């Protein structure tokens, strides 16, 4: 009897240790092991997609090494001779434009960001599974909280990364009062991809949510990301629990990046790929942009060699230093001087500031074009979203898309990369427009914007 007591006492200690200490530690470790398995599975899936679409990572890496002048170490630019729009997945801006014969793709280049076409296919295949029934989801309220269009889209790229990492499908959550969704163009639409853009997934919000409500769905954060056990996670542009992924890239593309001698922390590369996938205007939006091109741009053509100058003003001055118009002009002069064979003294100007239009329109040694839309006075302090509410949310969104389209038809760019809108121009010109080799110059840091401090 005396011998049984220590045995029972020891057994009790062992069981208590397992329940109270070992099991929680094992579960925590196990959660991250699962994430690691997901990473390997996603990398394998990506490799399969790359091979399926004819992208040889070894060949691409060799191409990068073979042209050191064009592709310095870590460069994400690889020459792609064939930038045929039909190579992109269905629904991409290029293919919608080609199908509707609307947009003037008159100056598509021959250089794009490393892996662009294959990555776009990999994202598209992930977001369009054969069946949605057994999938996990990440739902996102994209609009609101005073976010500008560029900020809203860049946050969505980070949510797309989280979805890829966790083998989840990203779906926009319907918003009854979604700011940028308010107005006659978006009547009946409650998400960006049911109004302006192609659907980001073939899975429906009904499948993603089931019987859940927004209130009883778990938030995405570092803990739920690591655990990855809930069928559906949520995030919105106000809470933005995915902030911890701000400066990283999806697991599934790490091997691809390594083959191309690009850091897996190159969020500059990923943001461009994410935006190229998300910003896919649908046919209805493309027709509206063509109408507006006639209405506010007199259906003019952007001639070869035109320089895009985007001058960000307004509330951006609260978080960044703004350059005066004279600095933009001096930078434009320098671009022409350094590229006399490819850039002319012709500017397409986009800005929300009426005074900036007045400044550039008075130049006698430049040809300057701009859209004839309503703009802010320099002393206006209502911010981007305040002005959109004043002129109409849909109106401002569509006019902005038209300016983006016209900027992408240019052959060189001057801007301030701390602006989300300037980033959109840079990201899309170097992916879907195959112009990654053309000059983009920041008015503060020059051409070396690769490792810019993105917010």
TrEMBL record:
Parts of the chain that traverse the membrane: 7-29
InterPro entries associated with the record: Fut8_N_cat
One BP annotation, GO: protein N-linked glycosylation
Residue ranges of every copy of the Alpha-(1,6)-fucosyltransferase N- and catalytic domain listed in the record: 118-357
Key words, A-Z: Membrane, Transmembrane, Transmembrane helix
Taxonomy, superkingdom: Eukaryota
Name of one Pfam family that matches: FUT8_N_cat
GO MF annotations in UniProt: alpha-(1->6)-fucosyltransferase activity
Classification via PANTHER family: ALPHA- 1,6 -FUCOSYLTRANSFERASE (PTHR13132), ALPHA-(1,6)-FUCOSYLTRANSFERASE (PTHR13132:SF29)
Record protein name field: Alpha-(1,6)-fucosyltransferase N- and catalytic domain-containing protein
Organism encoding this protein: Ceratodon purpureus
């Amino acid at each position: 009897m005396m011998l049984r007591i220590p045995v029972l006492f020891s057994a009790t200690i062992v069981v208590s240790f397992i329940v109270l200490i070992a099991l929680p530690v094992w579960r925590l470790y196990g959660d991250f092991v699962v994430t690691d398995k997901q990473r390997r599975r996603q990398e394998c899936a990506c490799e399969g997609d790359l091979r399926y679409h004819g992208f040889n990572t070894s060949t691409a890496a060799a191409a990068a090494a073979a042209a050191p002048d064009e592709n310095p170490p870590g460069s994400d630019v690889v020459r792609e001779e064939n930038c045929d729009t039909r190579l992109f997945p269905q629904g991409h801006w290029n293919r919608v434009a080609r199908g509707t014969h609307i947009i003037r793709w008159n100056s598509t280049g021959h250089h794009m960001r490393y892996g662009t076409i294959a990555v776009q296919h990999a994202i598209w295949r992930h977001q369009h599974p054969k069946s949605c029934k057994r999938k996990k989801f990440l739902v996102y309220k994209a609009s609101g909280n005073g976010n500008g269009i560029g900020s809203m889209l860049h946050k969505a790229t980070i949510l797309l990364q989280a979805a890829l990492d966790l083998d989840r499908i990203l779906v926009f959550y319907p918003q009854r009062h979604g700011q940028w969704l308010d107005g006659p163009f978006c009547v009946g639409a409650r998400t960006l991809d049911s109004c302006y853009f192609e659907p980001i997934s073939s899975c429906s919000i009904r499948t993603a949510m089931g019987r859940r409500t927004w209130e009883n769905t778990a938030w995405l954060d570092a803990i739920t990301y690591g655990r990855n056990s809930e069928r559906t996670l949520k995030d919105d542009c106000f809470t933005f629990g995915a902030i911890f992924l701000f400066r990283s890239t999806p697991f599934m593309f790490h091997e691809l990046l390594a083959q191309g001698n690009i850091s897996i922390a190159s969020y500059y590369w990923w943001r461009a790929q994410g935006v190229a996938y998300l910003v896919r205007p649908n046919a209805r939006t493309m027709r509206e942009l063509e109408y507006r091109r006639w209405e506010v741009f007199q259906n003019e053509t952007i001639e070869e060699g035109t320089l895009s100058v985007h001058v960000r003003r307004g509330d951006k001055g609260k978080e960044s230093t703004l350059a005066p118009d004279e600095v933009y002009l001096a930078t434009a002069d320098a671009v022409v001087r350094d590229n006399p064979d490819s850039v002319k003294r012709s500017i397409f100007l986009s800005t929300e500031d009426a005074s900036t239009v007045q400044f550039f329109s008075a130049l006698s040694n430049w040809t300057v074009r701009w859209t004839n839309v309503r703009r802010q006075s320099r002393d206006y302090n209502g911010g981007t979203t305040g002005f959109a509410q004043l002129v109409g949310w849909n109106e401002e969104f569509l006019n902005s898309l038209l300016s983006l389209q016209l900027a992408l038809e240019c052959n060189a760019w001057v801007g301030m990369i701390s602006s989300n809108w300037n980033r959109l121009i840079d990201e899309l010109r170097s992916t879907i427009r195959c112009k990654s080799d053309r000059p983009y110059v920041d008015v503060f840091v020059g051409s070396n914007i690769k490792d810019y401090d993105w917010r």
